[in-house]
Amino acid sequence: MPRMSSDQPQDPASSQSSDTRPPPARETVSRGGSLAWALLLSLLALLGAGYVGWRQWQQGREAALARMHLAALDARLKTLEHGLKDRGAEDVDTRDRLLRLEQAVQPLRESLSGQETRLRNLEDAVARLAQKSLSAHDTLLLDEAESLLRLGEQRYALFHDAQGAATAYALADQALAAVNDGAYSGVRRSLAAERQALLASRPADLETGVATLGRLRDSVATWPLKPALPADKRGHDDGAWARLLHALGGVLSVRRDDGTPLAATDTTLARELVALDLAQAQAALLAHDTPGAAAALRRVAAALARFDDADPGVQAAREAVTALLAQLAPAPPVRLGGALAELRNLRAVHALQQAAPAPAASTGTPP
Q1: Same-domain status, 215 and 298
Q2: Most confident of the ranges 16-20, 169-173, 305-309
Q3: Is the distance from CB of 176 to CB of 188 less than 8 angstroms?
């Protein structure tokens, strides 16, 4: 700054004043500024040297750490290399073992393949045997069902036993239900329809009717006959003829014939005849002879006219006989045989279907 001021032009007045200043003061100022600049530069140099030294120390430390990391990485790499070498040796050993196992397993595979072939052959043989056994079992069941249907039809045709025929049809339905073939479901529906018709047309309950007739037979002995017709009223005649008739009254009795059989006058014989008719009706019911039972009951109803209607036992007997006759009224006959014919036709069709593939199977397979 003093130099720059000294270079500028000054006026004569100022120069004169400066020339009049004492010279030692100017020299002191210039020396102080130089010393300050020197100290500043020294301080800057010292700071720069410290920074450079600090940076070098940092770089040395980082280099040492890097060398330590590199050493650790080298150690890990060496460990990995040793591990890979050991693993490679183990892999080679494992490959050798696998090859030896493959060579040992190959015969076992061939043997297992042969065993599987034999097992399949055995399964096929067992399946064929099971099919034959199942077919034989179904055949037996179908034969049983056909026999039961035929038995029920004949029992109804010969004895009019609707209950027995319905029981046979129920057993036939159970046999068809055990057959392992859904094609016979139509036969079962036809069978169920015929069985329902039999149950709807059956007469009165056999046990109830027989028990009722048994009670009537036991109570016949208590039924009183109707009182005899009163004798014709005659006037009191004291003549000779009146005395003669009165004398002969204890020996000979003459009455008007009103068409009443002898049984009407004989209590024991009348009751025995009614009991016989009741027994015949009971036997006819046990034999499933509905017409015979109805005829015997009609005779019993006619014979009940000889007994006293005022008696409660006779009234109960008349009501029971009337109820039995109503229950034994002939019903329209049931047409049977449809289910049996359908079963036979279906079995014939199945037999043809089973016999048809046999020639094709024998000629189509190569030797």
Answers
A1: yes
A2: 169-173
A3: yes
- Using an 8 Å Cβ cutoff, are 138 and 180 in contact? yes
CA–chain centroid gap for 111, Å, is 43
CA distances to 147, 193, 313 from 151, rounded to whole Å, are 6, 17, 43
| Whether residue 209 is found in the same domain as residue 326 | yes
Are 277 and 296 in contact, with CB atoms under 8 Å apart?
yes
Does residue 146 fall inside a structural domain?
yes
Of 132, 198, 134, the closest CA to residue 334 belongs to 198
Residue 251: DSSP 8-state:
T
CB contact set of 280 (below 8 Å; sequence gap of 6+): 292, 296
213 and 314 fall within a common domain: yes
Whether the model pTM is above 0.90: no
Question: What pLDDT, on a 0 to 100 scale, did the predictor assign at position 234?
Answer: 44
Look at residue 314 and tell me if it is in a domain.
Answer: yes
356 DSSP 8-state letter: S
Q: Per-residue pLDDT tens for 62-108?
A: 988 998 999 999 899 989 988 888 888 888 888 888 988 888 888 88
Provide the residue type at 243 as one letter. R
What residues make up the domain containing 293?
Answer: 204-226+261-330
Same-domain status, 269 and 345 = no
| Collapsed DSSP state (helix, strand, coil) of residue 225 | strand
Counted domains in the chain: 2
Tell whether 222 and 308 lie within a shared domain.
yes
Tokens of residue 174, six digits:
């159970």
Give tens-digit pLDDT for 279-307. 999 998 888 788 888 899 999 999 888 88
304 and 190 co-located in one domain: no
Report if residue 101 sits inside a domain. no
Distance of CA 191 to the CA centre of its chain: 24
Which alpha helices (DSSP H) does the chain contain, by range?
2-7, 12-19, 24-159, 162-177, 185-201, 206-219, 240-248, 262-265, 267-286, 290-303, 312-327, 338-355, 357-364
